[in-house]
């Protein structure tokens, strides 16, 4: 199989990830639930994972690195901490449903800072206009999950800091793929999954907390058990219930892989593959390719459509030929609305550190054969 769906899940992982998860299942208990070795070793493993994440994302205090089930879980915590009914919330035109659905459920006053695809200056100006009208919160994705568009997050963060407006960043497509500096950005929260660019198992995620959060889940933490309210300190305040210690052990190895290889090197590898892919697509008749002229504003994601072909049907045909990618709206209808592809959707190819040029060439050959058949 040629796996080109890493924007959904990096199925190809470092071997150490699966080994660590399997070892944890049979050797580790639950952190904070006993003074015996399996519990103490689990606590050490969890803290080592926080430390590794803190190193990668420049978080000064590892205890402000909170484990979540996924990015959606973290975004719900973050949004529900800062926003409420009627809150004026400015978002980009590229947000995932993990951002827009919680905001709609809260009945927030949502304002969209729309900017043209791959136009960082246009996006920044749209945010400036909306912020000048007043805002209680800004939520912005770092990288579009549909188009790989790198939004000007450092500049958006600067606008927020000057106006003292809290910023929540969705780093689902940037964590592990492009540099993310938590301290430098000064965000209220940054949410990310463990199973994409961090090469961890599904069911893991991280929430980096710049402000004190409001729990969305209450229960046992192994600490302050006599109190009937959640602890007032992190990470316990947000980590009710039993930890996914097998997932955390695997995530630790994924984080080590990214730290050792280097985010800049991963970004360069993915950028090279996407550049090679888009050049090949331009030679296939009837291909509409959504790409940036400046490679610095696009990560390892490439969306495209084939003239006269339904995206879902072509995606299924590619799957039948051993190419795994995603077709449709990618849980981000707002992004498609912004780019003008809401009615058709797109096919999305996304790469990781484990892909190579040979695989891209095979994919392009199969795509050309399928579209030539009509």
Explain this structure.
- The structure is a single chain.
- By secondary structure, the protein is α/β, with parallel strands linked by helices.
- It has two domains: 2-11 and 262-373, Aspartate Aminotransferase, domain 1; 15-261, 3-Layer(aba) Sandwich (Aspartate Aminotransferase, domain 2).
- The protein is built from twelve helices and 13 strands.
- It has helices at 15-27, 37-57, 71-82, 97-105, 120-132, 153-163, 182-185, 245-261, 263-282, 311-320, 333-339, 357-373; strands spanning 2-3, 65-68, 88-92, 109-113, 137-141, 167-170, 189-193, 205-209, 287-290, 301-306, 323-324, 326-328, 346-350.
- The strands form three sheets. It has a seven-stranded mixed beta sheet, with helices on both faces. A four-stranded antiparallel beta sheet has the order 9-10-13-12, covered by helices on one side. A two-stranded parallel ribbon has the order 1-11.
- Helix 1 packs antiparallel against helix 8 (245-261).
- The radius of gyration is 21 Å and the shape is globular.
- The model has no long low-confidence stretch (mean pLDDT 97).
Helix content: 40-55%
How large a portion of the residues is in β-strands, by DSSP E? Answer: 5-15%
Multimerization state: single chain
**Given the helix and strand composition, which structural class is it?**
alpha/beta
Looking at the structure, the CATH topology of the largest domain is Aspartate Aminotransferase, domain 2
Total of DSSP H or I helical runs spanning 4+ residues: 12
Low-confidence stretches: none
Written as H for each helix and E for each strand, in order along the chain, the element string is EHHEHEHEHEHEHEEHHEEHEEHEH
Mean pLDDT: 97
